[in-house]
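Lecture 7 notes. Example A: sequence first, then its C-alpha cells.
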Amino acid sequence: MYCICCKEDTVLPYDIKYPDSGISNDNDAKLTEVDLLWEKTPSFSINNAMVDNGIIQIIDAGYGSTHDGDKLIIAICDDCIKENLENSNLLYYGNGEDDIEKSKKLYNRKKNLDILIKKENPIE
C-alpha cells in the first residue's frame, strides 16, 4: 500500500511480501493485497494483520470532519514514522511514559514556535 507521507508503495501486508506464510480463503486460495486490505471476518482485518515496513490501519473519522462516520484505510512507512515522530507531526500515544512525555514536549514546542511565528508575521 502507498505511504500517506512519501507516496511510495512500500507498506505491505506481510502475507503479500512473504506469500508462503499467508492466510487463505475458504477455497485455500491466497488472498491478494486488495483482498487483505478489505477483508473483514470475525478473526481478521487489516487492523490485526502483520505488516512489513510500516503500519496499515483502518481509522474512523470523528464527528466534525467532513468525513464523519467514514472509515479509511491508511498506511505509513517506517521511515516516515521515524521522521514524523521527530518533527512531532506524528505523536506517541502508547509505548511507555518516556516516549509519551518526549512526544508531548516536542508537540508543545512546535505549537509554541508556530504561535510565535504567526504573531511576528501576521497575515494581512
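Example B, a different protein, same format:
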Amino acid sequence: MRIAHKAVGSHRCTFEVWDGDIDEEEVRAHLLRLAEDPNWPPGPFNLADLTTMGNVSIPDPELVALLQEGTILETELKTALVVRPELMAANGRQYEDVARATRVTAFTDLRSASQHLGIPPQISQSLIDALRQSL
C-alpha cells in the first residue's frame, strides 16, 4: 500500500499520504478503500501530503466523479496538496491555474496547507506522521 488515508469528522477532513511510485491499480485500490470507509467523507476538506510521491498514473476521472457523486464533495470539496518545493518552483503557474479551476491548492509545507483548511497544524502533523508510519 503506497497510499494511506484517515477520515476525521471532527476536522471535516480526509488526510492522505501518497508515497513512492504509484500505479493506476494502487489509485483504484485507494478509491475502493475510500468508498468502503464508513467515516468517509467526513466533510468537504482533503489534505494530501505528496512530498514523497514519485511517478503516479491516475485512472479515468469518471471513477473519481462516481465516488464523489451524491456526497458533499461533489459541490464543496476543498483540497490542499503538500508538494516538494522544487515541484512548485518548476510548475508554480500551472498549480495556480489548477487551483482556480478545481479548488485544489498546492503548498510546500504542511503548516500552510493546514491553515488554508482551518485545521490546527499540530493536528495535521500528528495525523500525517501516523499515516506515513502505516505505509
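Note on Example B: The CA atoms of residues 15 and 47 lie 5 Å apart. Strands lie at 3-8, 13-22, 45-56, 78-82, 104-107.
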